[in-house]
Amino acid sequence: MEEKKKEELEWRRKTWKLVSKVRLESPLIQCITNFVSMDLMANTLLSAGASPAMVHSLEEIHEFTPRVSALCLNVGTLSSSSLPAMIAAAKLCSQLDIPWVLDPVAVSASSFRFDACVQLVQFKPTVIRGNASEIISLSSCSLQSSAASMGVDSTHGSMDAVEAAKLLAQTSGAIVAVSGATDIVTDGNQVVGAHNGVPLMQKITATGCAVTALIAAFVAVDKSHALDAAVSALAVFGVAGELGMKMAKGPASLRMHLIDSLYGLDEATLQSHVNITSLC
Ligand SMILES: Nc1ncnc2c1ncn2[C@@H]1O[C@H](COP(=O)(O)OP(=O)(O)OP(=O)(O)O)[C@@H](O)[C@H]1O
Ligand SMILES: Cc1ncsc1CCO
Ligand SMILES: [Mg+2]
Fold it and tell me: Which function does this protein serve (predicted)?
């Protein structure tokens, strides 16, 4: 019991430290993302204190990517014209030891998307964050899609994906995060759960994409502790959702109040809401 209490306090301390560090250092986060998520992703990063830049062109990668603090790649609206820039940016980050995060949106939608995600994973993402269906699909070695799990929304609960997430972490070397009612984060051995958030967050498109970008910002300021950074970003985003929900009337106003709550988050409020536990 005493040990559990100590662990809870330690997570609260770590989480606030990372929130403060992002606000202080304002890391530059390059996002090559889908057309749906760009606005929410940029606004989430700004309200957290980071500096977003949606720099997509292949022609700009060699000059721009070496200067960023972290990269966020998202295949939500992948095309043959956007993939080469993603590959070039991932390759540079892996060569230059710049942390980068992959969001394998709807990985089982097509073999084109599945193969692209498998190729990107070879460039050693620091963190992979998806919903449960996406992590289960990416973790299996071949494309096995059913109509129910082909879209961007999850048809599985996050706890269904624990073993798949551990396996993907072991085979890729990445920290793997699965969003859901409980957000799961694993390095292939340890599994941590962040229990914050509200179900209505699923009814705002691109909240998953936005939290992946927030993970990139947290990893940018503490790249040697990527698991802690991923858990903290997920918990902070969930707390912002809980605070926003107190003022929201539906998904559209939750979106606005979530961003406002993230921007205004103070130490006492964060610490009284953060709910992180070890799952094994
Ligand atoms: N049932 C739930 N209860 C609380 N929070 C939830 C629940 N489901 C999702 N969330 C939160 O909503 C956010 C988005 O997670 P979700 O799993 O819906 O991502 P996603 O499917 O990748 O979304 P998108 O593709 O629209 O970006 C996360 O912060 C997650 O913690
Ligand atoms: C709806 C949608 N389609 C491709 S990306 C995206 C945003 C949520 O992932
Ligand atoms: Mg998603």
Answer: Thiazole kinase involved in thiamine salvage pathway.
